């Protein structure tokens, strides 16, 4: 079992973490190619060395760490055991952990996913998870409810960083002129209404997506903005994507920091440079 949250809502804990450490989420994505580049074998032992080095370099420095579950699952039960350690040790070192699992299922199965990642009793419980709403936002209710009860958060996909996203996300809903992405923003806004300083239902909006025309003014929650670095977006792009919502944006990058390994100091320096360059871009 990982440590609890003290029932302080995720949104409030995120605001404190960002104030203390800067607005940055670093992904822990143990790609086989990165393991090789670090001189590690592509097996569970190599995964463990890679992931725990990343934790050592980053968990005392960066506001949010985002392990990508698939890269751990690919190594079977030993990989999942490493993921449990990554979550526990990162949280002990003061980082918030956003577990990237992009789950979405019919409501009754969604309850099981919620218990796996958002219940205090689970060995895989993180501070927040990524969720996919394309079975309908309402199907996520068990996760939203459990996250709220346990002081955890969720980030719901809205406008993802990949080029295929618009096929679904910019489509117009049957009930009127809104896009699917706008509907997700409106659902998040409804869940976060009145939360202070920030709600715990976030959205995922890629840093790569450019001007969207989406209205984020009522969301009152955090925006995870992946795509910086390896996918071509820069910190300067955030202003175009998020306009006057920049204060609530959590920029995310993974390979662009991890490629500086295997040295702990080099990985940490790369993350600190990213924090500074993002802070400079957001301040101008
Ligand atoms: O939910 C995510 O984290 C996510 C959403 C999205 O729209 N785009 C996106 O790249 N991600 C994740 O963010 C990480 C990006 O890694 P880099 O491209 O190496 O910075 C990967 O783990 C992706 O799965």
Automatic annotation (TrEMBL):
CDD domains: OMP_decarboxylase_like. Its EC number is 4.1.1.23. It catalyses: orotidine 5'-phosphate + H(+) = UMP + CO2. Pfam families: OMPdecase. Coiled coil: none annotated. SUPFAM superfamilies: Ribulose-phoshate binding barrel. InterPro entries: Aldolase_TIM, OMPdecase_AS, OMPdecase_type-2, OMPdeCOase_dom, RibuloseP-bd_barrel. The keyword Lyase applies. The active site is at residue 102. GO terms for molecular function: orotidine-5'-phosphate decarboxylase activity. Residues 23-270 form the Orotidine 5'-phosphate decarboxylase domain. Keywords: Decarboxylase, Lyase, Pyrimidine biosynthesis. Pathway: Pyrimidine metabolism; UMP biosynthesis via de novo pathway; UMP from orotate: step 2/2. Belongs to the OMP decarboxylase family. Type 2 subfamily. This is Orotidine 5'-phosphate decarboxylase.
